[in-house]
Design goal:
Blueprint lengths: L1 E8 L6 H11 L1 H4 L4 E8 L6 H7 L3 E4 L5 H10 L5 E5 L3 E2 L2 H13 L2 E9 L5 H17 L6 E5 H6 L11 H16 L2 E12 L2 H5 L2 H13 L12 H4 L4
Parallel strand pairs: 1-2, 1-4, 2-3, 6-8
Antiparallel strand pairs: 4-7, 5-8, 6-7
Helix pairs in contact: 1-5
Length: 241
């Protein structure tokens, strides 16, 4: 068994080092089972020291020139040789316990893909409320948060990878296709909740409630069409860090 950890990264020099250290430590959960691992960072056209930091940490670095989260994840996955892919965002910190839960699901044989609930170290009330709402929806609808997705590599490729037509919410669209394939194969898409993923709350601080509300209204009224335009998804692409 081989696990490929894929981290998409665009100008992440502030947070990437901590993520890479946490991932290196957490990988022990796979090593204890005798599984092989590899770490791949996709430099999504960064202008800072993201790629250099990743190389110093021992990661294989691939380059994706078009700034899009889906393309970065897909480019990392294309370079991966693992039986399973584990996508983690560059501003998130996994634990050994979370990776142990992933290993248990993989070893059990009934899981096709999965994700994790998330938590933020934040004192911003509305941010915490949104986090709780997301976790509730994720658990009940088996929706994958883009910050942490593990998936059988063959299934990932069979369903068509992350949609490169979308500039945000691509993980929700992938969730739908993976759940359909899992049902066809008598398997499951699971959401782990014993050891939530710690993820950055920077978007709560960098963007106001009004900016997020405006985005949600535009997406709703536009029936999702704004998600296909980079300029409409500025929270992910305007470069604020």
């Amino acid at each position: 068994m081989k696990i490929s950890v894929v981290i998409p990264a665009f100008n992440e020099e502030k947070l990437l080092a901590a993520t890479l250290r946490a991932v290196a430590t957490a990988m022990a959960a796979f090593g204890q089972r005798g599984w092989m691992t590899e770490l791949i960072v996709c430099d999504n056209n960064s202008t800072d020291s993201t790629a250099e930091l990743a190389r110093r940490a021992g990661a294989t670095v691939v380059f994706e020139p078009i700034n899009q989260i889906s393309r970065a994840r897909n480019a990392g996955a294309a370079a991966a040789s693992g039986d399973w892919l584990l996508f983690i965002d560059a501003d998130s910190v996994p634990t050994v316990e979370l990776f142990e839960d992933v290993a248990e699901q993989i070893a059990g044989g009934r899981c096709l893909a999965g994700g994790s609930t998330v938590r933020m170290h934040s004192e911003v009330g509305w941010g915490q409320a949104l986090c709780r709402l997301w976790n509730w929806l994720s658990l009940r609808r088996h929706l994958l948060a883009g910050s942490f997705i593990f998936c059988d590599a063959a299934a990932f490729r069979a369903v068509g990878r992350f949609s490169e037509e979308l500039f945000a919410s691509e993980e929700l669209e992938l969730s739908r296709r993976l759940k359909k394939r899992a049902a066809q194969q008598g398997k499951a898409v699971v959401i782990l909740d014993r050891h939530p993923l710690l993820t950055s709350d920077r978007k709560v601080h960098l963007y106001s409630r009004w900016e997020w509300l405006t985005f949600l209204v535009r997406v709703t009224l536009g029936l999702g069409r704004p998600l296909r335009r980079r300029e409409a998804c500025s929270q992910w692409y305007d470069g604020r860090r």
